[in-house]
Amino acid sequence: MKPTLLPLSSLAINSERDVVSARQRARQLASLLGFPPQDQARIATATSEICRNAFRYAGKGRCEFLMEDGPHGQFLVRTVDQGPGIRNLEEVLAGRYHSGTGMGLGIIGSQRLVDRFSIESSPERGTEVLFGKTLPRASAGAVRTPSRIAQELARAQPASFEEEVRQADRELLRAIGELRARNEELEQIRGELEETNRGVVALYAELDQKAESLRKATDLKSRFLSNMSHEFRTPLNSIQSLARIVLDGSEGPLTEGQRKAVQLIRKSALDLADMVNDLLDLAKIEAGKIAVWPTEFEVAELLGSLRAVLRPLVQEGSPVQLVFDPAPALPPLYTDEGKLTQIVRNFASNALKFTERGEVRVGVREDGSGRVTFYVKDTGIGIAREDQEIIFEEFTQIEGAQQKKIKGTGLGLPLSRRLAALLGGQISVESEPGRGSTFSVTIPRRYAPQGAAATSSVTTVVGMVDDAALLAQWERFLEGSHFRLLPARTLEEARAAIARERPSALIAGAFLGGAPTRPLLAELRKDEATRAIAVIGYARAPHEMRLLALGAEVMVERLDERHQLLEAISRALMPPRRVLLIAQEGRDELRAQLADPRVEVLEARDGSEGVKRAREERPRTVVLDANAPGFAEEALGLLRQDPETRALPVLVRAARQLLPGEAQRLQEAGAQVVSVHAMLRDDATRTLRAALWEPEGAHG
Prior knowledge:
disordered C terminus; 700 residues; 5-stranded mixed sheet; 5-stranded antiparallel sheet; alpha/beta
């Protein structure tokens, strides 16, 4: 319903005195309507400026004072003239018009003083300006009816022309005083900021010094561990050999108690030797001195060797079964068999330690575009989401009743992650307390030689951060790998590097040289020549993550370790994946959320069509829409019934609050539910894309 405009007063503008009268009338009405003195002055000043324009440029006009009825009404002033209109009105309103007479300054200034401002102008009809401020809450002295306002105006004694001018001067002096006080306050704040900035500069200098000291300490630690590990091996090997000789009876028969004691000594020596070997491998990796020896071998042979090694860990009659899934028909792998075996063996031995009943399942699957994934899935105690990154820190174990029963060094998983990075791959984990865990390692089917000799395989990465120390650290991390870092500390340097080198990936912060990087990332996505460049968003704060989310394939918060940097680059350069989208309606929105140079989106309208397309197109992942109740469950049921689509990873996008038990049924059917119903559009897009790029083992 359109609000009603109630007339309060009006007067003709035929002279400068009429302009002053209009200013006086505006202040009187504003006072009667309950506006505070500062707002009264603003309304009066705006009225004076607009009425003066009408008199100066049109010769005459009319000023009307109105009140908009309603709970959120406004006090409005409307001026009308029959003049020649205002040329260049758009430039005037935008503040781009400059005139020797000052035309436009009054309009712009008045617009800033009020809550509402509109202007219409043409040579045929003249100019009409409507402006006003929202009425304040009714106070004891406020008058809100036209009849009462007319009575109050009639009783009021009009001020003289001179008095009105003096009033305007007083208001001007008051405004100047407020501006002076504000400038003094700003000057004080500027001084404080300069002092703070000097402190920050000093702090950064100290941090750089600390970082250099830490780097030297890390190098010393690596050399110490490397040297000492070698020194430990000799006595440990001697203890194992002597224990074996004694147990064999070469030194005479043993009592049962003596046999148990020697067996304990031998087992302790073996455990200590394993820890020493892990320490030595970690030290070699940190020093960049570990070598990769790729050979060609069959997947079935590797699984057979693992089966022989792991079988003795499962005692006869144990409630835990060790199951090996049949190996798919894959071409031979060309990589370091020993390091790959070490990773998977570590996964499986951990799974057997922390699984009291059920099964530990080991297998491999083809991952598309020349990559394979080895996985170990158990029904053990599981790992909470907040602990799934902690387990990859050296000498770290999660506190818990089951963990206290089982001793370990906390080195196996950190070492496995670094070994995977050396092979050009990455490790992922999907787990839930009480429901087990799935550890996966994804590597290239054929290992790409690293180092300067393999110049054809060198991959250029542009580092878009203005921190010289961090760029130098990243360059050190990438030494000996097939990645080459090209630093860019300004947007101009970044544009030049991209145009000259055509890099495969970028590491971009939210700001570069004080300017936001988002426009540059948007330009890359629009240009066909640069669209395929992978972007790693380096977000060190939540607001930076929001700025980078839509322009980056991978988001990271920390890149201060070599394995983190290598893993982030490898993830960003993962091959494109084909995604099947099954949705009844709203496919445009979903397609936009999945839009990515590395994603090919197929579409189906229901579960039956989805099964058919999945059998024909072989997608990597299926995305189901759960907007309509029952739709996702029905489509998921059809996918799970068909032998050829049963194992496909499925994401269910829920843009609504799911019904009780609905999420649990979807998860029990092997789907990952991605709830975005309470999220903003950008956050929902980021969440769905992050889930899409998780390794398949993480989808259950």
